[in-house]
Amino acid sequence: MSILSTIYSELELLGLSAIDLRIILLKVIAIIVTIILARFIQRYSIRFIRRLDDYITAYDLSEHTYRVLNNILFVVVWTLAIVIILWIMGLTGVVAGILAGAGFAGIAFGFGLKDVISNFMAGLILAFDRPFKIGDTIEVSGFAGKVTDMSLRMTTIQLFNGKAVFIPNTNIITEAVINYNRLGRRRVEISVGVAYEEDIGKAIKTILNLLKKDERILDNPEPNVLVETLADSSVNLNVRFWIKVPKENFVEVKSDITKAIKDEFDKLDIEIPYPRRVVISREE
What we know:
Layout: H1 2-14, H2 18-55, H3 63-88, H4 92-112, H5 114-129, E1 137-140, E2 143-150, E3 154-159, E4 164-168, H6 169-174, E5 178-179, E6 185-194, H7 200-213, E7 224-230, E8 235-244, H8 250-267
Antiparallel strand pairs: 1-2, 1-5, 2-3, 3-4, 6-8, 7-8
Helix pairs in contact: 2-3, 7-8
């Protein structure tokens, strides 16, 4: 009892009453609860979305989308938490000043950073529309390669020659995008020239037998070989077959089949012609 009386006497010296002390304690508790709730919401909201996504099979969110959502939730939750804490502390004027300042700053930055903001919004659209994901092979803005990273501002594509290209997201959502992995399969086309003197039917049958033996080539759609053009020195055949992507390497399979056709034609003495030039010299 003497301890409480001592505390009250000290508070009276500071100009504080027991009611003031209770108000301060309540505010401290409210601030602590706000911080705990903010941490809880920011941490477990993504887990809740993941579980909800597991139940809703019609729309499967990617890891990139989860990262975007997590960043947005972090900014929104802690911004609201700071505003609530300032309001609890009675700093409503500060809150109003921050909101007003944010409004003016938003207008100023909006004019100066309109390209950055448009890329940011485009990144949000890509995160939810998902025309491609990390690891897909795509072609956009004249560049073709594998997607290695996706941020809210730009998408990184590694070209087949090893170079990295950083494409603004606004370019991606305003241009046509070719996704070679979206359907899970890709068609390979090879042009093969056969001499006019050779049996074209035999050449086509030889190629089809090769394609059927390769386990990497899909049976459905069925591989086919078409007569493409009657060129100057050869009958050009168009070899078409499908492979699974990204399981099979497009360039590797195309190279292997091209080599196999050449080797088989050599065994069967089927000529693959090449342009010939006749040089006529005139003696004077």
